[in-house]
Specification:
The radius of gyration is 30 Å and the shape is globular. The protein is about 60% helix and about 5% strand. By secondary structure, the protein is mainly alpha-helical. Among the domains are: about 1-65 and about 270-365, no CATH class; about 380-480, Glycoprotein, Type 4 Pilin (2-Layer Sandwich), CATH 3.30.700. Strands 3-4-5 form a 3-stranded antiparallel sheet. Helix 11 runs antiparallel to helix 13 (about 310-325) and helix 14 (about 330-350) runs antiparallel to helix 17.
Length: about 500
Amino acid sequence: MAITHLPIVRRRRLLPWLVGGLLLVVLGLYVLSISFIANERLAVAVSAADQDNPHWRLDDLLANREKVPDAENSAIVLEKLDELLPQHWPPVAAVVPGGSATAKAPVSDAFNRLDDLSANTRPEATVANVLRAELKKYEQALAIARTVASYPKGRHELVLGPTLIDTLLPETQAVRRVARLLAADAAMRAEDGDADGALESCRAIIGAARSIGDEPMLISALVRIAMDATAMTSARRVLGQGEPSEPALAKLQALILDEKSQPLLYTAMNGERAFLVEFIRRVETGKIPASKIVSNTGYRMLATVAGGFGGQQALALEWMNDAVTITRRPTSEQLALWSAWDSKIAAFHNRGINRFTATLPIMLTPAASSAATAYLRSQAELGSMAILIAAERQRRKSGKWPASINAIDPGILPEAPRDPFSGRPFHFAHRDGQLFVYSVGPNGTDEYGKYDPKRWLRGGPDDVGSQAYDLHLRRQPFVAPKSPAKSQEEQESRSQP
């Protein structure tokens, strides 16, 4: 009997090995098919990126950045300020004498109180005195900073971090303090009646922003956008305090229109595409250990193994190709396109095992839509300010505000910018002693120029724009807010012994 049943026993022992071998073959074929499909997708995505920009890969992109001659490079000028300015300006806090505790710095407090004033209101004497004394300390730095008003471009050299995503931008971040110092300078020059000098400082803020040049990173674009916003706020204050000359107005208007034409968002998205794909490639090839970027062991394994077939590169490149394409569309179409882009990525993230098999693209795809909205807001602010300055030039020429944008002399404004959110002309209205030029903002509704930054992107009011005052409303004296009246009970309690 034992001899009769021996073949069956052997077959039974062999069966698990046969099944296991078959499973391994099936798994191997599955892996090969996934790898083949991923590589095919990657090839298609690479071809699309090549058609958009033959130099889109990180090494090529950095090698083909614009070369800026030293004589035209505002970044070189601003580097001289490192030894002349503190690390932070205005200082956030001041050390309390005799202890390690800190208190609000008087300069910072004065700067913030100035920022809270309406553009046509003069600062109170204490604020002006603090800022003047502070600016006096940095006269040499200010003299250098003002010179970049005439610099058309700039370039900071990038030093890539070991994992790419840890690349620091110290020079880019440092120019923000220069912008704030120049903003205080513009306010005090306007307070002293030097409107043309104040506009020079406004142009210098834009010149400092341009020192960032074509840095291929979203953070760089956002810093530049923030500095442009500082320049526009300062320019509105100058117009609220006096009457700059025609040449000074013309120079600022031309600079604003040129700044508005710069492809900041395209440059940033193109760079983010290069950084993201190269980062994933280095993780897949082991040049960047997954442990450097993902702490969870399971995620590290999936990030490395699942991406080893080109799938994560392909997905990241597909997403970023779409993002770059959106930046080339008319600005009035972009908000809806970014919303769809966000929704597609969110739906992918929430589907099945995708969050594990596409760990790196999901983790590292930039918050592109948020940056894009900031860019559109900047476009609205720059465009409205250019029109407002043109209207001020027209008022000086004819003695009254133009009735509409079309009524501005073409010699002053050959082609008016259009609302980036609607694609239509900016709204233009004169009421209550003010001229308003504004965009309808993200919600697309005319809210008569009202804007609430706390409700931006949450339904509004979000009319982004600029306004100027009639002459009799400019340079109004500061009036201290009245203290709230004490109740009868409070007065009686204070009189009690």
